[in-house]
Structure formats: structure tokens, C-alpha cells
Design goal:
The chain has about 100 residues and is mainly α. It contains five helices and no strands. Helices cover about 75% and strands about 0% of the residues.
Length: about 100
């Protein structure tokens, strides 16, 4: 059932992208931002750190950590670097 749902969703997205160039562009940007948030959350969880603990390490509020993980479209590089260092990771960028 889950595979069928994923296949249906992928077909729908591909169809919308073909028909609507603005949707295609916006979808790709949004998806990249979503992936950044997921990767940050995974790094935090792999380090065994709660949002609250990470917030304390970064001298901020838990809500700020949640915003970073769920709405990372406008995250500053310095914030990204501090976040990753606090969970024991390093930032590496590639330009393709």
C-alpha cells in the first residue's frame, strides 16, 4: 500500500512538473530546503541530543531549533555551521 502511494505521488509530481514550469522550479527549491532540515534533524538524533539540549548548547530556545529543522529555507551558513558543530559534525559544501 505504501509503495503504491509513493508511486502515485511520484507520478503526480512528475506530471505537474511537465505541465507547470513554475511548480517544477518551486518544488525543487522547496524539496532541497526540506532535505536540509531532515539532514539536520538526523544529525542531531544520531548524536543522541534533544532539541532542548541543542538549544542550550547554542544559547537559544527549543523553538529556534524546531524552526531550523522544519523551515531551513533561509538558514545562515554561520548558523548551519554552529548547529552542526554542536552535534559533532562539520559543514562541507560542494558547488556543482
Amino acid at each position: 500500500m505504501k509503495e503504491k502511494l509513493n508511486d502515485d505521488l511520484e507520478r503526480y509530481i512528475a506530471k505537474r512538473k511537465r505541465k507547470d514550469k513554475i511548480f517544477a522550479r518551486d518544488f525543487e527549491v522547496g524539496y532541497e530546503n526540506f532535505k536540509i532540515g531532515v539532514l539536520l534533524k538526523q544529525a542531531r538524533e544520531e548524536a543522541g541530543i534533544s532539541q532542548e539540549e541543542l538549544a542550550n548548547r547554542l544559547n537559544t530556545q527549543k523553538s529556534a531549533i524546531s524552526r531550523i529543522e522544519n523551515h531551513s529555507e533561509d538558514i545562515r551558513l554561520s548558523t548551519l555551521k554552529e548547529y552542526l558543530e554542536a552535534v559533532g559534525k562539520k559543514l562541507s559544501l560542494r558547488i556543482l
